[in-house]
Design brief:
- By secondary structure, the chain is α/β, with parallel strands linked by helices.
- The protein folds into 2 domains: 2-168, NAD(P)-binding Rossmann-like Domain (Rossmann fold); 172-299, N-(1-d-carboxylethyl)-l-norvaline Dehydrogenase, domain 2, CATH 1.10.1040.
- It is 47% helix and 20% strand.
- The protein is built from 12 helices and 10 strands.
- The chain has helices at residues 10-21, 32-41, 80-85, 106-114, 151-160, 171-192, 196-201, 205-222, 231-241, 248-254, 265-274, 280-299, and strands at 2-6, 25-29, 43-47, 50-54, 57-59, 70-73, 96-99, 119-131, 134-145, 165-167.
- Strands 1, 2, 3, 4, 5, 6, 7, 8, 9 and 10 form a 10-stranded mixed beta sheet that branches.
- The chain is globular, with a radius of gyration of 18 Å.
- Bound molecules: NADPH dihydro-nicotinamide-adenine-dinucleotide phosphate (NDP) and ketopantoate.
- Ketopantoate is lined by residues 102, 124, 126, 181-182, 185-186, 242, 245, 247-248.
Length: 301
């Protein structure tokens, strides 16, 4: 299958390398520095202490995107509209577009700019970028696709490429579950630059996370989304699944990049205001990360 990956960051490089290893024709739309690295020596996938080099196409000008059967959209939430507008050259009426982004409304926002259906996907993988085009895997790997006529076939294709995939009719509840995981882990890991296992072992951290989860569950319920009674347990399991991972928000702060916090804890705060459910701990996380973004920018000059 011909696959385009929009965004050659952690998720894009991970998914791109597995799809290319499974024999698909993969083209990554990358920043120039990433594009140069990938053109020179392919993608490097680091897993369980082993490095694999994978040959893929990389381009830095969207106008040269080939027509494809499948698009994996892998940019951060704030880049959805801008990157979405660049994608037109690779779309045919039959192209399936997947949004592999955290947050609730990226697929909807992307569909709006594209005028094309987009399937939301919840991604349970822990990856980070070591160097341009070089991605390290820290655990997990499964994805959950929203419903569409093509979702079952695409899930099968992904699973055969070592990306375990299922389809879930109630994708809104699944996206909220993922949002709760992000609200519990991302800001704390980012503010302290700590990996999940040592983070949850720190006295008091689990209480803070439980409070974050309780606020999210209450907001979701007031919005008509009923999360499982095992939600806290599901959140706690993540630290065992990806012990050495630092959140994507931690990776952004480390690089002096704006984070997705307004789409994570900030989303819960805004929805909480709409439905009159207080979210003080989520607000504290949002504000602390916004302050950290500013001070990291200042420190980096
Ligand atoms: N990392 C992880 O473990 C996980 C991440 N996610 C989610 O997946 C999504 C992607 O995250 P992640 O891979 O970590 O993010 P990254 O920041 O590592 O990757 C996104 C990449 O897209 C690039 N990009 C943005 N706009 C464009 C554009 N117009 N043209 C070309 N490249 C562009 C960015 O470049 P630049 O930085 O220069 O803007 C960056 O290299 C996010 O929503 C995240 O929350 C979900 C599960 C796990
Ligand atoms: C799955 C998890 C929690 C992995 O770190 C993630 O989604 C993120 O970092 O944004």
């Amino acid at each position: 299958m011909r696959v385009a990956i929009i965004g050659a960051g952690a998720v894009g490089c991970y998914m791109g390398s597995l799809l290319a290893m499974a024999g698909h024709t993969v083209t990554l739309l990358a920043r120039p520095v990433q594009c140069d690295a990938i053109q020179k020596r392919g993608l490097i996938l680091e897993r369980a202490g082993k490095q694999t080099q994978v040959a893929v196409q990389a381009i830095s000008h969207a106008s040269t995107l080939p027509s494809v059967d499948l698009v994996l959209f892998c940019v951060k939430s704030a880049d959805t509209e801008e990157a979405g507008l660049l994608m037109a050259p690779c779309l045919q009426a039959s192209t399936v577009v997947l949004s592999l982004q955290n947050g609730i409304d990226n697929a909807q926002r992307l569909a709006c700019v594209l005028g094309h259906d987009v399937v939301p996907v919840a991604v349970y993988v822990a990856v980070d970028i070591v160097a341009p085009g070089h991605v390290a895997h820290h655990g997990g790997g499964r994805v959950i696709l929203g419903p569409s006529a093509e979702s079952a076939a695409i899930a099968e294709l992904l699973t055969q490429a070592a990306i375990p995939a299922t389809v879930e009719p109630d994708i809104m509840a699944i996206l909220w579950e993922k949002l709760v995981v992000n609200c519990a882990y991302n800001a704390l890991s980012a503010l302290t630059q700590t990996a999940y296992a040592p983070m949850v072992a720190t006295p008091g951290a689990q209480e803070v996370m439980a409070q974050l989860v309780a606020e999210c569950v209450a907001v979701a319920a007031a919005c008509g989304v009923f999360l499982p009674s095992t939600m806290l347990q599901k959140v706690q399991n993540i630290a065992q699944l990806m012990p050495s991972q630092m959140s994507s928000t931690a990776q952004d702060l480390r690089r002096g990049k704006p984070t997705e916090i307004d789409y994570l804890n900030g989303y819960v705060v805004r929805k909480g205001q709409d439905v009159s459910v207080p979210t003080p701990v989520n607000l504290a996380m949002q504000v602390a990360v916004k302050l950290a973004e500013k001070s990291h920018c200042l420190l980096r000059g």
